[in-house]
Amino acid sequence: MSTALRAIMFILLGVLCGSLNDVGIKLLSGEYPLHQMIFVRSVIGVAISFALVQMEGGIALLRSDRPGLHLLRALLVVFSNMLFFSALAVMPLGAATALFFVAPLFITILAIPILGETVGRHRIAAVLIGLLGVGVMMAPGVDWGGIGRASLLLPVAAACCYAGMQVLTRKLGADTAASALGFYIQLTFLCVSALFFLVAGDGRFAEGLSHPSAVFLLRAWVWPAAQDIWVFGVIGCMSAAIGYCMGMAYKLGTASVVASYEYAALPLALLWGWLIFGEVPRNVVWIGIALIAGAGLYVFARERARDRVLAASPPLRHP
Hints:
The chain has 319 residues and is mainly alpha-helical. The protein has one domain (3-312). Helix content is 74%, strand content 0%.
C-alpha cells in the first residue's frame, strides 16, 4: 500500500472516530461539565495511547528534543476541543461542523511559512471563497433562533487552533511516532481537565451564569448515570483513536492533501444531526457548506493535479 493511500485511510478513520466523539459529547452536554467528560475520556485515552507506544517501540519513543513544540501542539488541540465542544452545547451539530471546516483552509495557509509548502493563487482564491462561506453563515441578517454571534465564532476559533495543531503534527511527525504524538495530547488533556476540577469542579463559578456554553464549561462534576457510562467509554476510545490516526495521517501525507479528506466529517455530522438530534440545517447553512466544502475540495483537486504533473516530469539531470 502506498504511503499516500495509508495517509488517506488513517485520516478517514480518524474523521469517523472524531464524528462519533462529537455525538457522544453532545449527548452528554446537557448533564455533565465538559472538563469532567474530557477527564474521563483522557484517562481511557492515556491508557490506550501508552499501550500503542509500547507496541510501536517502547517508552523511548516519548523522548524528544523539542518538548516546547509538543506542548504547544497539545495545548492547541486542547483549546480547539474546548471551543468546539462549547459550540456544540448551543449549536446544531451540522452547523458547528460546517463552520469548523475552515480549518483545512487555515492549514493550507499555515503550511506555507511553517512547512515551506508552495500554495498558488488558485488555492489562495479557494481559501477566500471558503471564508466567504463563513461570512454568509454569520451575516447579521441571518436568523439562528436565538444563537448569538459570539457563539458562532466558537467553531471558527476552534478551527484556527486545530489548524496550528495539525501543521505542527506534520512538522513534528518526521521524527516522532504517531503513538507518541497521541500520548502527548491525551496526557495534556488529562492535566488540563484535572486542573479544571481542582479550580472549578464544585461548580461555584457556574452560579449565576445563563449562557449554555459557559455553564457547560463550569458546572459541577456529577457521578455518571448508569445509562451514560457506556457513552463515556466510547468517547474515551474514540479520543485515543483520533490522536493516533490523525498523527499517522499527517506524518505520512502532505498537510494540504490530508486535510482535504477531513471534509468527510461534514456529511457525517449532518447525518448524525438528523438521525440522532432531529436537526435539519437552515438554508444559509447549506449555502455556507457549499462554499466552504467546495473551496476545500478545489484545493484538493489543484494539489492532485500538481502531483500528477510532477510525477510525469522527467527526472532532473545534473550537468
